[in-house]
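[#protein-structures] MJ: dropping Protocadherin alpha-12-like here for a structure pass
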Amino acid sequence: PPGCHIFTVSARDADAQENALVSYSLVERRVGERALSSYVSVHAESGKVYALQPLDHEELELLQFQVSARDAGVPPLGSNVTLQVFVLDENDNAPALLPPPPGPGGGAGAVSQLVARSVGAGHVVAKVRAVDADSGYNAWLSYELQAAAGAARSPFRVGLYTGEISTTRALDEADAPRQRLLVLVKDHGEPALTATATVLLSLEDS
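AK: finished. structure tokens for Protocadherin alpha-12-like:
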């Protein structure tokens, strides 16, 4: 966060009096389209390096820069040190649902599919697709079928890590012709972030 202390640069000068006074400064450069000084600052006397804005892993994984240490002699003498700041990923992005591929059905925010009643157990009828802009464990997604209150046990299941919706048994006439499923997509960050997909299945006689 802004104002966070990142590191302290320390230098010593073997001279005496003013010749031994050390001051610190950034060696300015461009980081992408922005100046380095928009990301970090260094205190001229203490050498403490501070963040000036939040650093986002998705935008900047590594911030490498130099800090200059100069004495107060005439002419001034000094040296530079290179710092590498590795920006760790935070779980700051929720899963994003992808639109269904082109085809029949598929309303805004929903997956719509026709399903023949003749399909057997284990038949894949639809798939929920999602991505997460985070990295590593924070981007690992799992899928859960949400049970509707008061509804009969669904003849469908969702693959925990695939998002594929398949039948748990053969379909029959007792199954409602319109099936509305809610699939919870969850990442593995702390705390976990979620999104909910709606899947509309229309059962038809083959």
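MJ: nice. The first strand starts at residue 5 and ends at 8.
AK: one more thing. Residues 4-86 form a domain with the Immunoglobulin-like fold (CATH 2.60.40.60).
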